[in-house]
Design a protein that fits this description.
Ferritin; Ferritin_actino; 236 residues; Ferritin-like; mainly alpha; Ferritin-like domain-containing protein; single chain
């Protein structure tokens, strides 16, 4: 049986955040109290992956080099695989995936439009940064949902096939000082919008009283972001 690129067996990616066991019981409990209801968690996580897939496929059309098209196709396939995995969990809950995702379409599409750069390289960096930070965030959030959350964590922990994307971006940055400056500034703009998406995924009524409880998670997200930027030769 032939397997398409998104169906190939893939290694699990190494988590950028510390494992749930290293976060500590108090922090996990506090974060769980801010976690949204399960359907909200699943709907947003699934739609985010679909958005990554859509943006990457658009970038394929805008990219003339064949090797870069292949790299983007692999990353798009990984996002689609994660999307489908979460949809399967939603269906097993007896829910309609379209209905579960629909409330978040407008908001997350608006976020994705804000991360579309004037140039394909800016958009490629945006996908790499936002997907990395939000996958890490939802991995941390998944610990609030027992066995179902563990299954989502397994899906989000799969290899995202972005290794070649990092290589493409690093070569671009190393080739021209203006690209380095431009992409550094663009990356800094993306962080605020991405953290806002993460914040809005939580129980907003609890954030007003207990917002400081999520700060340690934001600290971890920023640490992982800094490591991604370092890998490309950019300062966070």
């Amino acid at each position: 049986m032939v397997k398409w690129f998104w169906q190939r067996d893939k290694p699990r990616r190494t988590l950028s955040l510390r494992s749930r066991g290293e976060l500590g019981d108090a922090m996990r409990v506090d974060f769980a109290e801010l976690a949204p209801e399960l359907n909200r968690f699943l709907g947003q996580a699934a739609y985010l992956q679909l958005g990554y897939f859509e943006t990457l496929t658009r970038l394929i059309r805008a990219t003339p080099e064949l090797d870069e098209k292949e790299a983007l196709a692999r990353a798009a396939g990984a996002a689609l695989s994660k999307h489908r995995g979460i949809l399967e969990i939603i269906r097993e809950q007896g829910e309609d995936p379209t209905e579960i995702m629909l409330p978040f379409q407008e908001h997350l599409d608006a976020f994705r439009r804000k991360t579309i750069g004037l140039r394909p390289r800016e958009t490629l960096l945006a996908v790499y940064i936002t997907a990395g930070m939000l996958d890490d965030f939802y991995l941390a959030l998944a610990s609030s949902y027992g066995e179902t959350g563990a299954r989502v964590a397994d899906i989000l922990s799969e290899d995202d096939d972005t290794g070649q994307i990092v290589t493409i971006l690093r070569h671009t940055i190393e080739s021209d000082g203006e690209w380095r400056s431009l992409l550094s500034m663009w990356a800094r703009r993306l962080v605020g919008d991405t953290l806002l998406v993460a914040r809005q995924a939580l129980r907003t009524e609890r954030l007003a009283e207990d917002g400081d409880r999520v700060e340690p998670v934001y600290t971890e997200l920023m640490g992982a972001h800094a490591r991604r930027m370092d890998a490309m030769g950019l300062a966070a």
